[in-house]
Amino acid sequence: MTLQTAVVGHPISHSLSPLLHNAIYKHEGVDADMHAYDEEDIAAFTEKMRALPIHLAAVTLPHKQSVMQYVDEIDARASDIGAVNTLLNTDGVLRGYNTDIVGIEAALKGVQVSGKDVLLLGAGGAAYPVAYYLKFKGAHVFYHNRTKEKAEEMRSRFGGVVEDDLSSISPGRFSLIVNATSVGLKLSDPLPIREELITKDTTVLDLIYTETPLLKHTSAKGARAISGLSMFVAQGLEQERLWLDREIRDYGYTALLQDALQKQSI
Ligand code: NAP
């Protein structure tokens, strides 16, 4: 019998998860199928997950924090981060994990952050594992968010500084800038920061999967630009590693998703 897995969120129509996970099942010879569940009520989804059963669920916007109260166990790291993006179902017992942190680690491989000043833009669900990673690696984190109170919440959880006014910051001050806002999802969006903040020595990670105006601008300056696609693929491989209990490599999945994203934008 084909085993069921899920990606759950609201809205969910543009999720790349079924494409990624179903390609993994095909390559790994696993008889499983991932469906997208557009659910507003995450409590009801967790009941459905136990009943059907759904063996693995990738949890996305807006449920990464609220789902935590409906699971039976939470992995220690997910608990420290304050967000769950993965549910595993073992005979009706749901356990929550956070694999976004593995995705961030992969995206920032080779980028020196220890002792560096890092600017983190955004304070939504995606920013939490970034802040956790940066703290763990010993970076000096500066938080900036449209709603200042949410940046303050992050500072009280992970330490660092809230930088409310970026207008007086000098160019090149931050060696790494991470965009965890949704500014850049549309090609017509403005840059989320003043362009002078990026110099040729700045590394920019944009959590958005596509080539955003911020990434284009970074590349044009000769600086290192990293898209969120590498993070997305790595966190998805980690979800399957947890479920299937075997190492899962990227057998052309990044290229497959790049191709799908290009078709979506046409
Ligand atoms: P979220 O919880 O909705 O947070 C959105 C963030 O963007 C908030 O900080 C929000 O500020 C800010 N924002 C939205 N519109 C803005 C605007 N016009 N000007 C300034 N700030 C604005 O979303 P999320 O889950 O954190 O996701 C954020 C981004 O990361 C999304 O683009 C998502 O696609 C991407 N993401 C990527 C991955 C990956 O694997 N690569 C994983 C997760 C998310 P306020 O607090 O003021 O509302």
Would you kindly provide a written description of the structure presented here, covering whatever features stand out?
The protein is α/β, with parallel strands linked by helices and 266 residues long. It folds into two domains: 3-98 and 230-265, Leucine Dehydrogenase, chain A, domain 1 (Rossmann fold); 102-227, 3-Layer(aba) Sandwich (Rossmann fold), CATH 3.40.50.720. It is 35% helix and 21% strand. It is built from nine helices and twelve strands. It has helices spanning 17-28, 42-51, 76-81, 100-107, 127-136, 148-158, 213-220, 229-244, 253-265, and strands spanning 3-9, 32-38, 54-59, 73-74, 86-90, 93-97, 117-121, 140-144, 161-162, 176-179, 203-206, 224-227. The chain has a six-stranded mixed sheet with strand order 2-1-3-5-6-4, sandwiched between helices. The chain has a six-stranded parallel sheet with strand order 9-8-7-10-11-12, sandwiched between helices. Helix 5 links the parallel strand 7 (117-121) and strand 8 (140-144). Helix 1 crosses helix 8 (229-244) and helix 4 crosses helix 5 (127-136). The longest helix is centred in the C-terminal third of the chain and has 16 residues, at 229-244. The radius of gyration is 19 Å and the shape is globular. The termini are far apart. The site of NADP nicotinamide-adenine-dinucleotide phosphate (NAP) has 25 residues, from helix 4 and helix 8.
